[in-house]
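Bug #77: duplicate submission created two jobs. Keeping one. Sequence:
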Amino acid sequence: MLDEFLNPLNVAELFDRNALSPDQIGNCIAIHETVVPDITGAHIAIIGIKDDRGSIRNKGCAKAPDLIRKHLYQMYLPHKHLRIVDLGNLEKGAKPRDTYVALSKIVNELFLNKVVPIIIGGSHDISYGQYGGYQEFGKMINVAVVDSHIDIRENEDVINGDNFQINLLTHQPNFLFNYSQLAYQMHYASPMTIDTLDKLHFDMYRLGKLKEDIHKIEPLMRDTDMMSFDISAIRYSDAPGNGNASPNGLTGEDACQIARYAGLSDRLTSFGLYEVNPALDNRNQTVMLASQMVWYFMEGFANRKKLIPKDNDADFTRFVVHMVDHKYELVFWKNVKHDIWWMEVPAGHKSKRPNKKHLIPCTYEDYMQACREELPERWLKTHEKLS
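Kept job's structure:
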């Protein structure tokens, strides 16, 4: 099925195999040159998207995939046991929706084979196709979007980079449990939109809040299935190759840290990096940063721990906080080796399994907040969605 949609790469235009050492990525991965590589046993698959019709003020991002590859393949493989395949490029369909449908089918095929797709290039609305890959699994998922804008515009017939999120939020059938908006800038966000998302108990991390302590989003990444990253979230001085770049934003280091957290997450099953525009770049700075973000995602993936709290496991300590004022008993779990925390949230009255406990990642600060008789915000939002 994959060969129906994906076009091969001209490797000679990307790098010289003889000029690379055996442990540089270009010589360590299977690349679609004539036939699509076998994905059996692969951990990660790279897919390039050459469609920027949905881009607003940023035409040219369809040319990003091969330039990102050019820099990525010169880097060293993060771990010798990591198996990566490059499936080639998805060309634009007759209509944008054809591209979304094709990507959904590709992503779904990779999921069935337990392969994590890294999607590079194209406009941010391609995220809608990435999201569509989850539809057939029959379970609720969590989505995180990193963007300087909140791309929600209602009453528009054509999906584009400025409105795709409303289509994601209202998609039928609905399989979205939680949505997280990261690094948005207040002056680019409608107060009404922020209020609506907050009332839906979604997670909102404006740029200032995120930069106060970027490590606080690590639990959020542990609880995310799909990540979509718009390069416009990074400040212009670090990523000039974007028509919507702003003087303010994440630093390159911030972006790589977020990508690494996404890679580390045992739950995360797809990563999309969009809106990189080589036509507006300065000395390939943005495509180089994008390639480094992909590398850090791979490095995080190679270090996944598969840590799930359970009874009688010496690596975990269980803490119970009796909240007298709120009449709740909150249960926390700590992995003593890695100092990583989880907390239990009871299912609501609408649940088919009312006694089921939902385990969600949290921080030590959440535990301390509970000890002060304060219900953690993450617990409250999850409980509301389960009720």
